[in-house]
Protein 1
Amino acid sequence: MATTKQPNRFRPSAKSKHHSHSIRENSSSTADKANSSNTPTITWWQFALFGGGCTVGTAFFLGSSLAIQKSGYLVLPLFALVAIVTYFVYDALARMTANQPEKGSFRTYAKQAFGRWAGFSNGWVYWASEMLILGASLTALGLFSRFWFPAVPLWIFATGYAVLALLVVILGSQGINKAENMFAIVKIAAVLMFIGVAGVAVFQGGKEVVPLPKTTDAWLKGGWTGAWKGLLYSFYAFSGIEVMGFMAMNLKNPKDAPKSGRIMLIAIAVLYILSIGLAMMFVPIESVTQEESPLILALEAIGIKMLVHILNGVLIIAGFSILVASLYGVSTMLVTLSEDGDAPKLLSKSWGKRKLPIYALGMNAIGMSVSILMALWIPKQIFEHIVTAGGLVLLYVWLFIVASYLKLLKPSVWGQVKSWFAILILLLAALGALLEPAGRTGFWTSLVIVAIIASVTVGMQFKWKKEEKKTA
């Protein structure tokens, strides 16, 4: 564990001090404020369960197929590597949260570390990434549903799930926390069921079982280039940890955040590696497609049709839970941007007794509508393109989380080693998208998104300077 060399409070830079949230004298006052709100506090194990609900979803169940296609058997050690790096990123966020909980989570920390421009751009980059990831989730849900109803157009399913997700978010964070915990239990139970069934089938040694390679050459069949290509999609399978930053305000003891994430990520990494490893013993790599989960393909090979349908239902539940969690997180982000003056004031206005951010949800509904239109216009390979672009933009947010941690907490040597290692692997994952034509579309799309936000940020800086002169 890394220890910090500074007292447990953040100090905004001179550039950000005027516009940032007032920094409380200690983190306990912030925690007390959270505890006194209408949202009940949660324990560390409930928070870990919530994290599992945010992470295990379509990004794993369907996104893993992309990682397998690119990396072959090397996807298994890749998952182990990515789990470690994901923990380093999460640990950086969790330590900042334990030090000083903030409603705006990593966006607020970026602002405190580097100034208002960082908070503004980080918030909007995250919003863009979540719109793409929401689109990927809607697409995956549509693909899973078409397993039963192949004649129904993809966009109809996407529209239906988008409306349902908006309705669930209306219940508020208390409802989401309970729902995510329930969904997490269902998803984890389904993965364990698959591991048990596939494990028994392997033990019985049917003709459909193909043992994992025993030679280095067989493992490296796709080459190191293939592993590099699959690195991004392996990270995508762990996307969702950043949403935990928003819910961390509800932790009974914010200092439990690092422990919760560590236990959650270890458990998820073991489940991922075991389930995908077993699936690859029943499904040849060349048979893996972007339209079906490798776990579904494996159960079909084993020949248990009832379990195929049960698992497909769980995949829909898993995808929907991620959709709801992402929608909650990005809505919270829009509200904090608005409250900070970095988005239209309208977006922070609430409605009704639940103080629902109706305008923020409306903006997110527009973003999801764009994804639905994309599903209507370009249904072929849309999942890979959206995943690539969304995954890349999310990695940029993760890079900022680590950079903010380095600036604010100034960790010990071990903390710096972990952080710089994470930065290196994240950059390698982003560059891996350039190795093939399909990935380049998403790569350049992500850069266009970042370039647009950067241009707007530069324009906003002129506005902020004028405002400073008027108030000086």
Note: The mean pLDDT is 79.
Protein 2
Amino acid sequence: MSYSVAGKTAIVTGAGSGINLSFATLLLSKGCNVVFADLSLRPEAQAVVDKYSSSSSPRAVFVQTDVTSWPDLERMFQAALVEFGDYDIVCPGAGVYEPHWSNFWIPPGAAASRDHPASGRYALLDINLSHPIRTSQIAISNWLYPRRLEATKLATPEKASPQNPKKIIHIASVASQIPVFRAPLYGASKFAIAGFVRSIAPIETYGITVNAVAPGVVKTPLWTDNREKLANVDVAKDAWVTPEEVAEAMLRCVESEAGGVVLEVGAQRTRRVDVFNDPGPDMSPEAGMYTSNGAVGDAEVHSFLGDKTVWGWRSKL
């Protein structure tokens, strides 16, 4: 825990709301500059950026970013270099939870789907999986082989090393440990993130530490602004995980000298998820790991499967 974020610079995707906004705010409170990379900022995020945009240190800047666009991701990194000269922490945190427009149970070709057969892509996987993988790749490339931007007079950033450590923090999910019938694309993306983090962890020998958090059900607009998701929650019984709890766990991962760590974050509880023989999450309602009314979402899946207009489509080759 010897690493300090004070005086460092972080890039956080999805910082316009939810978990990533809480993490960005926490970093700023610890003296860390933050690049807010998102399509837009919710009012509460705009207030944070406004508060720190005129500060000499730490400072916040907003870079409009479509995380499904690889050129946008490149521009995000370039903006960080222009504004701060270097960056030390990268959080590719932007993610979505199986919205109806990109849902395995509403397949490409169905009228309600925005995943079109001709595109050959699932929007959810572009956001939840391709974006964090590509962002990690760009960060590692720039840290191992730093380049000076010709358009500025800034010095070339120092190469990553154990003496100049760099940090990547990903967001997996409790859904990377347990199956969720109503959200298989989301589950697949989070299983993949956990596996990706563990797989590239040996890069810590180069001074780059890669870790992840695996939150339970977090009270963010991703849930509270969507009735079809909120219907799965028993508000009288189910505990919520707060975004602040997740942000604190993310900071612990950044401060850690160990790589390949996945920290599960529940309601007022955090634990390390073991690679082998892990006992699994606490499934009691007070743990904040699942929603008691999940049968509502499962029933909706069965209604989709019984609808010929959804699953009776045929590709036109």
Note: The chain has a mean pLDDT of 93.
Protein 3
Amino acid sequence: MKLTITDEALHQLQLLQPEGRPNLRMEYDSDGCGCGVNGMPSIYFTNESTEYDIKVENEHYTIFLDEQQKIFFKPVMTLEWNKRLFRLKSPEGMLNPSLSSASIKQGGDPRE
């Protein structure tokens, strides 16, 4: 599994990166979506990993993904910045068209 980060997205990530959270985590977020197969792929900064994580190939960051969530992602993906939001896509189509800067920086939890 590989994630390419465009130059514009990389610049935005570098501006957002919180101190003490050097890695990214990809996650299939199903909170508030009903059942476990209804959700959206997300990505956020973290300093944690688990024994169940696999690494997603990337040139700039160490990126973790829970191996069981691998089925919700594509083998080749791109994270891009459209001057307002991040977008996660694959050659097959859009995985998440609207990843906010706040959710990437805070892990989707505004209390952090």
Note: The chain has two helices and eight strands.
Protein 4
Amino acid sequence: MDHSKHIPMSDVEVVAANIDGANVYGPDDEKIGTVSHTHGTPPGGKVVVDVGGFLGIGAKPVALPMTSLNFMRDPDGAAHATTALTKDELKAMPEHRD
């Protein structure tokens, strides 16, 4: 997927209603997780990403600073994010518990 042609989302747009369920892609453009929910708003907020698992079962939730994700919309308007973190790096993080 060529993310360079996607429209970056502003901090005002990065809210739960727009990003919950969004796919998260790693540096090699592999889908590495899905946004579960948020805590706070940009730039100081956190995004909880479910990593691994199958169809949401067995996924590990990890909390990331919103600043570590680049949120954007594809040409159809669907929100997604990219990050420099790999799936293995996310899996190594402590599990987030609400």
Note: The chain has two helices and seven strands.
